[in-house]
Amino acid sequence: MPSSPSGAGRPRATAVGAFIxxxxxxVRAPAITLGVLAAMFTLALPLGVALRxxxxxxxxxxxxxxxxxxxxxxxxxxxFGAQAQGLGRTLTHEILGFGGTMSIAxxxxxxASLPPTVAAAAAASMMLWIFLAGGILDRFARARPxxxxxxxxxxxxxxxxFIRLGLIVAAAYWxxxxxxxxxxxxxxxxxxxxxxxxxxDAILLRIALYLVFVGxxxxxxxxxxxxxxxxxxxxxxxxxGALAASMRFLRRRPLRALGLYLLNALxxxxxxxxxxxxxxxxxxxxxxxxxxxxxYLLCRVGAKLAWMASEVVFFQGELAHASYTAAPLPLWPxxxxxxxxxxxxxxxx
Length: 349
Known about the structure:
The chain is mostly helical. The chain has helices spanning 15-27, 30-59, 63-70, 74-83, 98-109, 116-142, 148-193, 199-233, 239-252, 254-278, 286-318, 336-348. The protein has one domain (30-348). It contains 12 helices and no strands.
């Protein structure tokens, strides 16, 4: 869909500007951030209750139970892990503080399989994000508060469309993990380390391979992100068309789009770095550990939402003007495309 000449004289959107405005829109929508955090907490709660039941059954009223209640007992955890099944196997020293974050990232990049219970929870979390994505993007596209009914209506409208998009994207991710990952960490790794005698060189090679793989994942991710943005802002029904439009959008402004992506990635890494410094130790009180963890999760959710908002801002700053947006006639004001038209008319009067 070609852009209109009427937008040719507008200044181009900048990565820094979109990043800043994206965070501003996120901060001005605290209900979205708190709501997503509450939904994630509710989703994880059954796992916590189930694990607590396993621990209670194993500990009983023994002396070990009293010692475990006072702090982390590595000896008992090793004993519990030796006989645990399914969800119980996740109780290791790696769940403490920053170790859990590193364990999740490492398992993901290495393509490690998850216990069935954890895999089901991860799938449920993914479905939750797919459902909420339409409403979140719609809210950020409007840049103003909307009614609860309108938010969940947008969630419902785009849920089925994003499921179709997810099926296409799942094939791309499957190809990366099924073909590229074994090629990098199997064929290339074995070939280049066959005659290596320096452990330092092997570590650097491993890091380089991880960067290549992460770069491939990022390329898919950024295309999918803007496909979702275009689907919502332009009310697109064809997800294949949204993917094609996303690739055209990125092809015409690759450096600024990549700059915005890197800024968002840097902000996320900064939050993870602060978590590394402030993560509670095993000796910390339960209350303090819970509080610090929830603050970290709140910041992580906020960063993810700001990432989505900044991409909406960047797209709107580039192409979402009156002559370009060509959605079907909506019920006013339940479409960000219609609202964008109205805002433009108001500014020109």
